[in-house]
C-alpha cells in the first residue's frame, strides 16, 4: 500500500535540487489517497450539490403537509396515503397508481426490448462490418439526428405522417390495403413506443458498440478456427463480451423511459398515464409534497430495476 | 494507509453534513430569496410576468414610446405563472394573471393589491367585472370564480375577499373572453347547439378537451348538465360526490375512445383542428381565428347552455414599492388607455375599458368585433394579415350576446386536491 512513498524514495536521488524541484517533490509527496480524492472531488461536489442535497430535500418535502398555496413543514404521510388511495379497497381492480405503473412498465419493457434488438444489430454492424474508423464515427453521429428537433416540433411533425389524414394513412387507403384510416397510428401506445424507440435507440447503440469494438478479433478467429458457426460465435463469444454495454444501454433506456412524461404525453395525446405525468399534474397544482412522494416512489422502483439488472451482470467487474 | 482512508472517510462525511447543514440554515433563514431587488433610477423597467395572451411586442413598443417604461416580458404557462408567484415572488414586478388563481395567490401574501383611486379609468371598467352584468344589463352566470367575487380585498394587506367595493383591488381588469367549443363545420355538416355533442358517439375518436384539470372539469360539467344527467349547484365548486360523478362520465367516454387527444398548448389545439384529427373540441377564440386564417373552416360555436368564461388582470409583486410602484400604476393606467385594449379586441378578446378601446378602433372594426355586425371591409389582425373577408360575422355575435351568455367562470375548487387526484385517475383509465 505504501508504493508511492517507495517510488518517491527511489526517485529522489535522481532529482537535481532546486527550489522548483523541491516544491515538485513536496507536491508529489501528497498521499495517493488525497490525490484520488482531489481527482474525484469536483465530480463529488457537483454530485453532492446538485443531486444528493436536492434529493434529500425531495425526501423531506415528501413527508410534509400542504394546502392550496404553501408547504406546511409538519410531518405528514398524506403525500403517500393519497397516492395509494383505494389500492386495497378496489382490489382485485388496480388503483390509479397501480394502473399507472403497470402502463409505465409495459411501455418500458416494449421500448427496452425493441431498442435492444435494433441497437444491438446497429452496433454489430458498426463494430464488425464497417472497417474504417471515420465511417464508424460518421455513422454513429447519424444516430443522433432524432435529437436535433424539439419535442414540440416532433409532435407537429408526426401528425402529417401518422395522423388520420397523414401520409401513411392516405398511402394505405389509396393503395387499397385498408378502407378506413388507421386510428391507432397516432396518439396511441404504438406512437409512444415508436417515438421513444426513435429517440433512445442511440443510447443502446453507443455502449454496445463500445463493448464490441473492444472484443479481441483473435477471439472470433479462434472461435471460427475451432469450428463454431456464426450463430455459435454470436451467442458464446460476442454476446457475453458485449454484456456490459448491453446492461449500460439498458440502464440508460429504462431510467429515461420510466421518468418520461413529455414524449408519452405528446405522442399519447395526453391520454396515457405515466409515472412522470402524475408528478407533473401534482406539481402544476402546486401540491409539491404529493409530487415529491411520487418522485420518491418512482426513484425506489427504478432503483430496484437497476439493482436487479446489475445482479445479472457485475458492471464494475466487467469494465 | 488504512488509517488515512478512514480519516478522509470521516472528513468526507463531515463535509457532507456541514454542507447540508449550511444549505438548511440558508434556506431556513430566508437568505435564499431568488433575485435580489435592485433599485435603479433610470431607465424605467418593469418585469412583467404573465401568459402569452397579453404580451404583444407591439404593446411593449407602444408603451415605451408613450410612457418611457420598458417592459421585460417573462412568459410562462398559466400553471407556471402561479408557481413562480409562489416560489419566486421577487423575480417579477407586474403580474398579469387570471382571477381564478387568486384563491391561491392572495393567501400566499406574495402579491400586492392596487389602489383603485390611482387607476384613472377604474370607474369606466365594464360592469362585467364590477357588477356581474353586461353594459346592456344582462345578468352573467356566477358559477365558478367569477371576477366580481374576488375583485376587492377588505384592507390593504388583508387576505379576505370583500363582498362590497373597496379601494383595494386584487387584479385591475384587463382582458377576458367567453370560451366554447370549436367545431369543423365542413366535416360535421350539421348544426351543433349543445355542449352534449362533445361526448356524442358520432364524434368518437374526434373530440378533445383542455388538459388543464381545473378547466377541463368545467367543460366536462357543462357536458354533464347538457345531457341532463345532473344539475350542479356550482360547477366551479363541486363537492366530492359531484367530482366523482363528473369524472365517471368522462372516464366512460375516454374508455369508449371518444377523445383523440387532450391539448394544453395554443398551437396543439390549432394543429389538432387544422389536421382534422379532431372535429369538436374546447378551444380559445384566437385559435379558431388561426385555423380559419389557414383556409380551413372552423367555427367558435355558440351553445345553448352558454359559455365558460375567464378573465385576467394586473397586480404587483409584494416586493414592489416606491418609485417602481408609481411606474406600475403608470403602466396599468397606460394599458387601460386604449391602445392595448384595441389590440386585444382585434384578436377576439375583450378589453376591460370599452370606451378607450373603441376610440382606438375603426368604426367598422368595432362593429364587427363588438356589435356582431357583418364586416364592412376585410378584418385585419394587429399584424396586418387578413382574418376575415368583408361580409363575415363574428361567431356568437355581439359582446352583449357573448358575455351575456356566460354560464360559468374558470375556477379553483375547494376540493381542488381531490379533483387533481381524480384527474390522474381519469388519465390512467
Structure description:
- The complex is a heterodimer of chains A (319) and B (429).
- The N terminus of chain A is likely disordered.
- Chain A is mainly alpha-helical and 319 residues long.
- Chain A has 15 helices and two strands.
- Chain A has a two-stranded antiparallel sheet.
- Chain A is globular and about 70 Å long.
- The longest helix of chain A is centred in the middle third of the chain and has 34 residues.
- Chain B is of the alpha+beta class.
- In chain B, strands 1, 2, 3, 4, 9, 10, 11, 12, 13, 14 and 17 form an eleven-stranded mixed β-sheet that branches. A two-stranded antiparallel sheet of chain B has the order 5-8. A two-stranded antiparallel sheet of chain B has the order 6-7.
- The N and C termini of chain B lie far apart (60 Å).
Write the layout of secondary structure elements.
The complex is a heterodimer of chains A (319) and B (429).
Chain A: H1 3-11, H2 19-28, H3 32-62, E1 64-66, E2 71-75, H4 78-83, H5 96-129, H6 133-142, H7 151-162, H8 167-174, H9 189-213, H10 217-225, H11 230-259, H12 262-267, H13 275-284, H14 288-312, H15 315-318
Antiparallel strand pairs in A: 1-2
Helix pairs in contact in A: 3-14, 5-9, 5-11, 9-11, 10-11, 11-14, 13-14
Chain B: H1 2-29, E1 44-50, H2 57-67, E2 69-75, H3 78-87, E3 94-98, H4 102-108, E4 111-112, E5 114-115, H5 127-130, E6 152-153, E7 161-162, E8 168-169, E9 172-183, H6 185-188, E10 207-208, H7 213-226, H8 240-255, H9 266-274, E11 280-283, H10 285-293, E12 299-301, E13 307-317, H11 322-335, H12 339-345, E14 350-351, H13 354-359, H14 363-369, E15 379-380, E16 386-388, H15 399-404, E17 406-409, H16 416-428
Parallel strand pairs in B: 1-2, 1-3, 10-11, 13-17
Antiparallel strand pairs in B: 3-13, 4-13, 5-8, 6-7, 9-11, 9-12, 9-13, 9-14, 15-16
Amino acid at each position: 500500500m505504501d508504493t508511492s512513498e517507495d517510488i518517491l524514495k527511489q526517485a529522489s536521488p535522481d532529482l537535481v535540487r532546486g527550489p522548483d524541484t523541491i516544491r515538485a517533490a513536496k507536491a508529489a509527496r501528497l498521499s495517493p489517497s488525497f490525490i484520488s480524492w482531489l481527482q474525484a472531488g469536483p465530480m463529488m461536489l457537483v454530485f453532492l450539490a446538485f443531486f444528493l442535497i436536492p434529493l434529500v430535500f425531495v425526501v423531506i418535502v415528501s413527508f410534509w403537509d400542504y394546502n392550496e398555496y404553501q408547504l406546511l413543514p409538519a410531518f405528514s404521510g398524506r403525500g403517500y396515503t393519497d397516492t395509494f388511495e383505494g389500492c386495497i379497497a378496489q382490489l382485485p381492480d388496480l388503483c390509479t397508481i397501480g394502473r399507472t405503473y403497470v402502463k409505465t412498465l409495459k411501455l418500458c419493457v416494449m421500448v427496452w426490448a425493441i431498442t435492444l434488438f435494433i441497437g444491438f444489430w446497429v452496433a454489430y454492424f458498426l463494430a464488425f462490418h464497417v472497417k474504417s474508423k471515420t465511417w464508424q464515427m460518421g455513422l454513429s453521429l447519424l444516430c443522433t439526428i432524432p435529437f436535433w428537433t424539439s419535442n414540440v416540433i416532433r409532435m407537429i411533425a408526426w401528425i402529417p405522417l401518422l395522423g388520420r389524414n397523414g401520409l401513411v394513412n392516405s398511402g394505405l387507403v389509396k393503395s387499397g390495403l385498408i378502407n378506413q384510416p388507421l386510428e391507432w397510428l397516432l396518439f396511441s401506445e404504438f406512437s409512444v413506443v415508436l417515438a421513444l424507440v426513435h429517440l433512445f435507440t442511440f443510447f443502446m447503440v453507443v455502449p454496445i458498440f463500445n463493448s464490441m469494438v473492444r472484443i479481441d478479433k483473435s477471439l472470433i478467429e479462434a472461435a471460427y478456427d475451432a469450428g463454431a458457426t456464426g450463430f455459435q460465435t454470436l451467442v458464446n463469444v460476442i454476446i457475453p463480451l458485449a454484456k456490459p454495454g448491453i446492461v449500460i444501454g439498458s440502464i440508460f433506456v429504462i431510467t429515461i423511459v420510466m421518468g418520461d412524461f413529455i414524449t408519452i404525453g405528446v405522442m399519447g395525446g395526453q391520454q396515457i398515464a405515466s409515472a412522470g405525468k402524475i408528478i407533473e399534474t401534482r406539481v402544476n397544482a402546486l401540491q409539491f409534497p404529493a409530487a415529491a412522494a411520487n418522485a420518491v416512489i418512482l426513484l425506489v422502483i427504478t432503483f430496484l430495476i437497476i439493482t436487479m439488472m446489475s445482479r445479472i451482470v457485475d458492471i464494475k467487474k466487467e469494465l | 494507509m488504512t488509517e488515512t482512508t478512514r480519516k478522509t472517510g470521516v472528513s468526507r462525511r463531515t463535509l457532507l453534513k456541514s454542507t447540508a447543514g449550511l444549505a438548511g440554515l440558508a434556506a431556513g433563514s430566508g437568505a435564499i430569496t431568488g433575485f435580489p431587488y435592485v433599485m435603479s433610477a433610470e431607465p424605467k423597467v418593469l418585469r412583467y410576468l404573465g401568459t402569452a395572451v397579453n404580451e404583444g411586442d407591439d404593446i411593449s413598443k407602444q408603451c415605451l414610446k408613450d410612457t418611457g417604461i420598458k417592459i421585460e416580458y417573462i412568459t410562462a404557462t398559466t400553471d407556471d405563472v402561479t408557481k413562480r408567484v409562489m416560489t419566486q415572488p421577487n423575480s417579477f414586478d407586474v403580474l398579469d394573471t387570471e382571477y381564478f388563481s387568486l384563491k391561491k395567490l392572495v393567501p400566499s401574501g406574495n402579491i400586492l393589491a392596487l389602489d383603485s383611486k390611482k387607476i384613472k379609468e377604474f370607474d369606466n371598467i365594464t360592469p362585467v367585472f364590477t357588477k356581474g352584468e353586461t353594459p346592456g344589463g344582462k345578468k352573467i352566470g356566477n358559477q365558478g370564480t367569477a371576477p366580481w367575487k374576488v375583485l376587492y380585498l377588505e384592507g390593504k394587506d388583508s387576505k379576505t375577499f370583500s363582498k362590497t367595493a373597496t379601494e383595494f383591488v386584487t387584479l385591475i381588469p384587463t382582458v377576458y373572453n367567453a370560451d366554447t367549443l370549436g367545431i369543423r363545420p365542413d366535416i360535421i355538416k350539421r348544426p351543433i347547439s349543445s355542449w352534449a355533442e362533445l361526448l356524442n358517439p358520432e364524434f368518437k375518436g374526434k373530440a378533445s378537451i383542455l388538459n388543464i384539470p381545473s378547466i377541463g372539469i368545467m367543460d366536462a360539467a357543462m357536458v354533464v348538465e347538457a345531457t341532463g344527467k345532473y344539475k350542479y349547484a356550482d360547477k366551479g365548486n363541486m363537492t366530492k360526490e359531484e367530482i366523482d360523478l363528473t369524472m365517471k362520465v368522462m372516464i366512460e367516454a375516454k374508455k369508449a375512445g371518444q377523445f383523440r387527444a387532450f391539448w394544453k398548448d395554443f398551437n396543439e389545439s390549432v394543429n389538432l383542428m387544422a389536421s382534422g384529427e379532431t372535429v369538436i373540441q374546447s378551444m380559445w377564440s384566437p385559435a379558431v381565428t388561426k385555423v380559419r386564417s389557414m383556409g380551413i373552416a372552423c367555427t367558435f360555436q355558440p351553445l345553448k347552455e352558454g359559455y365558460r368564461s375567464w378573465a385576467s388582470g394586473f397586480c404587483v409583486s409584494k416586493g414592489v414599492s416606491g418609485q417602481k410602484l408609481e411606474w406600475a400604476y403608470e403602466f396599468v393606467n397606460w394599458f387601460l388607455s386604449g391602445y392595448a385594449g384595441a389590440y386585444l379586441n382585434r384578436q377576439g378578446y375583450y378589453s376591460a375599458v370599452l370606451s378607450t378601446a373603441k376610440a382606438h378602433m375603426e368604426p367598422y372594426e368595432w362593429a364587427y368585433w363588438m356589435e356582431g355586425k357583418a364586416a364592412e371591409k376585410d378584418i385585419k389582425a394587429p399584424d396586418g394579415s387578413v382574418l376575415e373577408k368583408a361580409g363575415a360575422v363574428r361567431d356568437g355575435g355581439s359582446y352583449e350576446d357573448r358575455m351575456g351568455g356566460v354560464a360559468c367562470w374558470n375556477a379553483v375548487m375547494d376540493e381542488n386536491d381531490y379533483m387533481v387526484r381524480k384527474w390522474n385517475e381519469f388519465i390512467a383509465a
